[in-house]
Amino acid sequence: MFALSIPLLLLLLVVILVGQALPSINIFGAGFIFSSSWDPVRETFGALPYIYGTLVSSLIALIIAVPLGLGSALYLAEVSRSKIKEYLAVMIELLAAIPSIIYGLWGIFVLGPLFGLSMLSGGVILAIMILPTIAAISREVFRSVPNIFKESAMALGATRWETIKLAVFGPARSGILGAIILGLGRALGETMAVTMVIGNRPEISASIFAPAYTLASVIANEFAEASSDVYLSALVELGIILLLITMVVNGLARLLIWKTVGKNNIF
Predict the structure, then answer these.
(1) How far apart are CA 141 and CA 174, in angstroms?
(2) Rounded mean pLDDT of 194-220?
(3) Given 3-state DSSP classes, what are the helix, strand and coil percentages for the chain, each rounded to the nearest 5?
(4) For 164-186, what is the mean pLDDT?
(5) Which stretches make up the ABC transmembrane type-1 domain (predicted)?
(6) For 106, how many CA atoms within 13 A lie in the half-sphere containing its CB?
(7) Which end of the chain is more exposed for a tag (fewer CB within 10 A), N or C?
């Protein structure tokens, strides 16, 4: 009974949001997604700059966080044999407990002078924030690989790194991808830290040093200032777009992780 209430609550959330976004949906239609105009005075709104800023900053975060996260997970799960690895694992996971506002303050004082308020600064902040997610899940995925795979590879004459490549990374591919996508889902929805360092300018630029705006940031910054029904409904429609993106991303991640866990029979 209680389990059934969860999808009902999600359905209720979607219905309420769609109801609030109807004025914008009726006026702008599908063109809302592809328009770059955002003028509250003339009440013309478009989501494209915010979608672009969200996706590009998240992509930058993945480029930085994936090698670091996978490297950390591999070291903790397969390479390190010392007791210190447990403390390192705890320290990495503690990064997830730091409030996003603290990351934002750090970004202003450290990344601001280096890269300015830009997509790159936002991407670096996001990379640090999603690193614990990717590292922790990847570590568990690596540890879930049955020892028989590694023992068989070594029995056939594989070196240690060949064993890791063939007998660890091979069976864990889906789980690793799931961890990455789950980290992406976290990056897509992050608000406060990114808002403080990304520049908050609704522009589409090829330069990662240019300011940008994300879906979550514009909702947080402008929701209290929405002075008309169309303006408010346009912000809610941005929220629906963000919700759909994150739901698809997280659903895909869960599916891939479940596939790996089920295949390796670890639980």
Answers:
(1) 9
(2) 91
(3) 80, 0, 20
(4) 82
(5) 51-253
(6) 13
(7) N
Kindly give the interhelix angle for 229-264 and 119-144, rounded to the nearest 10 degrees: 30
- pLDDT value for 265: 46
Looking at CATH, the fold of the domain delimited by 2-264 is given as MetI-like fold (1.10.3720)
44 beta partners = 39
* Six token digits for residue 191: 């608000």
Q: How far apart are CA 240 and CA 45, in angstroms?
A: 15
Q: Which residue has the tokens 């997509």?
A: 119
First to last CA, the chain: 26
Q: Give the number of other Cβ atoms within 10 Å of residue 230's Cβ.
A: 18
Q: What does the block give as tokens for 114?
A: 């280096």
- Which H or E run contains 45? strand 44-45
Place of tokens 């997610």: 133
Question: What is the mean pLDDT of the segment spanning 23-32?
Answer: 88
CB 230 within 8 A of CB 24: yes
Name every residue whose Cβ is closer than 8 Å to that of residue 27 and which is 6 or more positions away in sequence. 230
Flag the least confident range among 88-102, 144-158, 171-185, 212-226.
144-158
| Residue found under tokens 């478009």 | 46
* Residues 104, 168 contacting (CB under 8 angstroms): no
